[in-house]
Automatic annotation (TrEMBL):
Organism lineage string: Bacteria, Pseudomonadati, Spirochaetota, Spirochaetia, Leptospirales
Keyword annotations from UniProtKB, A to Z: Kinase, Membrane, Signal, Transferase, Transmembrane, Transmembrane helix
InterPro entries: 7TMR_DISM_rcpt_extracell_dom1 (IPR011623), PPM-type-like_dom_sf (IPR036457), PPM-type_phosphatase-like_dom (IPR001932), TPR-like_helical_dom_sf (IPR011990)
Signal peptide span: 1-25
UniProt keyword Nucleotide-binding, yes or no: no
Organism encoding this protein: Leptospira gomenensis
Chain ranges of the 7TM-DISM receptor extracellular domain: 202-391
Protein name: Histidine kinase
């Protein structure tokens, strides 16, 4: 037995050695070591040529590249050569699989030759210039079976780059060295399922955080994290081999990769600071602009400049990492629970990023860019998921707690709401009660139903605020109409007011109530007190206005009212009125409507300083004329809504005239026409006054007997100022008149008597004339002058004041009135009138004479 074993031992030894050496020569064949290098493109020189320089290992040392010299402004090229043995057994393996060569990275243009035949290239050189870059990772080239031979084989690699650019072939990338192996095994190098899965995952996470931001845009950290995740996903894709399927220009691909990766740490820093500090500090802002600056330079830079910018960015990332650690540790120090949950993932993420960065910078021997960042971010993402899950659970627990107590809380809340509703109802009842009581106070004041054969008065009032109190339906607002008849100097007048108090509902009603009470009180005094009855219409309106003004001034501007206040002389049809910022008064005559005012004379009652601006207006109404007075509710009509939702309010005041004409003066149809034109937005009140009398008007020419007066003889005497002859002529005519002399004749006779010094006779005629024709200011002024001549200064003042109210710019009357006041020792009134006169006529001599008179003693005529 022992003898047989000794015979088999040599045979077993030979078999083991054969298997051992077969294993040593089997594929793959490593290509990292034992290369030779020469400058330029060298495809002809044999392996023994002395121009070859031996390389111990890839990559090419810098000192070896520096030993080659090249002409200025030409590309740099080197040729690498390596020989290796392929055994017969290895060739037999190729019967079922092909052979391929793998290079981890070529830095620019490359050509690969196997046994003299080019098997692949990247980039191109034309005319000694690189026209297309060839930078590529994981170059795998198939080797034709016909070129593989038993024994010695060689592979040559020609590399080219522009001056100053990197010229090299890397020894490893992602821990994969250069080698020759079966195609099936080399193709596994390009398999990147996990890488692409992570890239897609990070892209999804980025868009998911975008959704968070759009739903709640005050949480800006979701935006920054989403951008960070999406940019990192794009960077991972550009670092994968899948990007070569796009067939981009290698230089463009490199620029896009740099532009993406420059912004990744910037967005991460913004996320950290906003997440833990809820604000962006100056350092993060600076780094963001720094990254944007580098990014903006890339599109316009050469490959050499791009690499320089990359190196600047790489050093900046190291500084950024320190600041990121500071933010995280500060959050931990402040016991931020989210920082505790994120710390492990943050540390792994930053460590993997720094290792990849140091490897790409080749600062540590043997360390390369292993692509750890994509895995490090996954651990950080787990921390984010944990935070989101914790927040979801917190919200879920709160929701469950709320649901458990929901029924009780709903009942409690319903009870609270019911209590509040009861309180509101009680307050509403109280408020409506206040409204109701106020409306009861307003109802007796807001009356204007008066019957007369000489005029007809109608009105319409609709308040914006309408309410119900118990079984009553009422309305309340600031509009009011009051009218009543009074006697002034034994002459019948219709006194009226249409007012619109400032404010809505109760505030406006308060103003209307004050206006109605004061006006009704003034009317009552006029009807019972003789001193009020003896006032002419102009002075009555003045005193009534001042009484209203004094009352409303006491409210210090918190209650204002616009009014039209007037008197209608029932016999003559003369309308005396004043307008305090109320819409203009309209006339309807002969089927045509028009305004009888053209400018604003007074501001609202309650505004101080109105006394000096007061003016009484007059208008002569004819038979069938109708006057329409209304509040601003007639104009403030809602016409609709424009495209941007703004309400369109009518601003054309003439629309009121059109509605009057369409209604043919009927107040009911007028109101309906206004409602058809637009929606009422304010209180509305309209007063219609129709004159039915046939007033007597002054005619300058009359017939006396068979002769027309004034006749030619009288006019001749006037022209020649022969006043005595004119008086005789008129007295002769008077003797021929049977009955009463015409008013025209009496007016002329009074004028002539004044000229010849028959003052009392002239005054008697003028008093009678003014009583019949109160509109004649000329006769009124002459009568006032006569009163002054006859030392009847109070009557002179009364007529002067009437003229002043109607013609405030009549300088002659102002001077005459000032002098009249002087004789009854009312110096304040004198000074006020002199000031007014000097504004009207600075060179007025009469004003100077009055001032001189004031310096001398004057008899007191106050009791005359």
């Amino acid at each position: 037995m022992k003898k047989n074993i000794n015979k088999l031992f040599p045979t077993l030894t030979i078999l083991c050695l054969f298997c051992f050496f077969s294993a040593l020569e089997a594929f793959p064949i490593p290509l990292t070591k034992d290369w030779k290098i020469s400058s330029g493109k060298n495809l002809q020189s044999g392996e023994d040529d002395p121009n070859w320089i031996v390389l111990q290992s890839l990559p090419i040392p810098k000192h070896t590249l520096d030993s080659f010299s090249y002409p200025e402004d030409t590309i740099h090229s080197v040729t690498l050569l390596k020989s290796f043995i392929i055994s017969k057994e290895e060739i037999s393996e190729l019967s079922t699989d092909g052979l391929s060569v793998h290079f981890p990275l070529f830095t620019n243009v490359y050509e690969v030759f196997f046994n003299g035949e080019r098997i692949g290239q990247g980039g191109s050189v034309v005319g000694g210039k690189i026209v297309r870059n060839g930078f590529k990772r994981h170059v795998i080239l198939p080797i034709p079976k016909t070129k593989v031979k038993e024994g010695s084989n060689e592979i040559r690699v020609v590399l080219s780059s522009d001056p100053g650019e990197e010229l090299n072939a890397y020894a490893s990338l992602n821990s994969t060295p250069p080698l020759i192996d079966l195609r099936s095994r080399n193709s596994e190098i390009l398999s990147e399922r996990s890488t692409l899965m992570l890239a897609f995952l990070y892209l999804f996470v980025g868009f998911y955080h975008f959704l968070f931001y759009f739903k709640r845009n005050q949480d800006r950290y979701n935006l920054f994290f989403g951008l960070f995740s999406i940019f990192l996903s794009a960077y991972i894709y550009f670092r994968s081999n899948a990007v070569y399927e796009l067939e981009l220009d290698p230089l463009l691909q490199m620029k896009l990769e740099y532009m993406i990766v420059f912004n990744v740490p910037a967005f991460f820093l913004l996320f950290l600071e906003d997440f833990f500090r809820s604000k962006i500090g100056p350092l993060s802002r600076f780094y963001r602009f720094f990254a944007l600056g580098l990014t903006s330079l890339i599109p316009f830079s050469s490959r050499f400049i791009c690499i320089q910018l990359l190196q600047i960015w790489q050093f900046s990332v190291l500084v950024f990492s320190v600041y990121s650690f500071y933010i995280m540790f500060q959050a931990l120090w402040r016991k931020n629970q989210d920082s505790v949950r994120l710390f492990a993932g943050f540390f792994i993420l930053l460590a993997s990023a720094i290792l990849d960065l140091l490897g790409s910078m080749q600062m540590i021997t043997g360390l390369e860019n292993y692509g750890l960042l994509k895995y490090g971010f996954f651990t950080f993402e787990l921390g984010i998921v944990f935070i989101l899950a914790n927040r979801f659970l917190s919200v879920h627990n709160e929701a469950e707690e709320l649901n458990r107590d929901l029924d009780l809380k709903v009942r409690e809340r319903t009870g609270q709401l019911q209590d509040t509703l009861d309180q509101i109802r009680e307050l509403k009842i109280q408020q409506d009660g206040d409204y109701f009581l106020t409306s009861l106070l307003l109802d007796p004041l807001n009356r204007y139903q008066i019957k007369s054969d000489l005029y007809n008065i109608e009105g319409f009032s609709r308040q914006k605020k309408q309410f119900e109190f118990k079984q009553w339906k009422k309305e309340i607002g600031g509009d009011i109409i009051v009218a009543d008849e009074i006697l002034l100097k034994d002459r019948k007048y219709l006194a009226f007011v249409n007012g619109d108090a400032m404010g809505k509902s109760i505030q406006g009603a308060g103003g209307a109530l004050v206006l109605g009470v004061v006006f009704r009180s003034f009317l009552a005094r006029t009807q019972s007190v003789s001193s009020y009855k003896s006032k002419p219409p102009e002075l009555w309106l003045k005193e009534c206005f001042f009484e209203l003004q004094n009352i409303f001034e006491s409210f210090d501007g918190s209650m204002l009212v616009s009014v039209v206040l007037g008197l209608l002389d029932v016999k003559s049809g003369i309308l005396f009125f004043l307008n305090a910022e109320h819409p203009w008064t309209a006339l309807y005559r002969d089927a045509t409507a028009s305004f009888i005012e053209d400018k604003l004379e007074l501001r609202k009652i309650g505004i101080t300083g109105l006394e000096s601006k007061m003016k009484i207006k007059t208008f002569f109404m004819e038979n069938g004329d109708s006057i329409f007075i209304g509040s601003d509710g007639r104009d403030d009509l809602l016409l609709g809504v424009d495209s941007d939702g703004t309400r369109v309010i009518n601003e054309d005041e003439s629309q009121f005239l059109k509605r009057i004409e369409e209604a043919r003066g009927d107040i009911g149809m007028l109101v309906q026409g206004l409602r058809n034109f637009g929606e009422l937005t304010d209180d509305l009140s309209i007063l219609k006054l129709t004159y039915l009398g046939r007033p007597k008007r002054f005619v300058p020419v009359v017939r006396i007997g068979a002769t027309e007066f004034p006749d030619a003889a009288y006019l001749g005497y006037l022209r020649d100022e022969r006043w005595e002859l004119a008086a005789d002529h008129l007295e002769n005519i008077k003797g021929t008149i049977k009955g009463e002399a015409p008013p025209t004749f009496n007016k002329e006779l009074a004028k002539v008597y004044y000229k010849i010094g028959k003052y009392q006779e002239s005054l008697t005629l003028l008093e009678e004339f003014i009583s019949e024709f109160p509109e004649d200011i000329e006769s009124m002024f002459t009568a006032s002058l006569l009163y002054k001549r006859l030392n009847r200064y109070r009557q002179a003042v009364e007529l002067g004041e009437r003229i002043l109210l109607r013609e405030p710019e009549f300088a002659g009357n102002v001077a005459h009135l000032a002098e009249s006041y002087l004789f009854i020792h009312k110096k304040d009134a004198v000074l006020h009138l002199l000031s007014k006169l000097e504004k009207l006529d600075p060179a007025n001599l009469h004003a100077r004479e009055i001032r001189i008179q004031m310096e001398n003693p004057i008899a007191d005529h106050r009791n005359d």
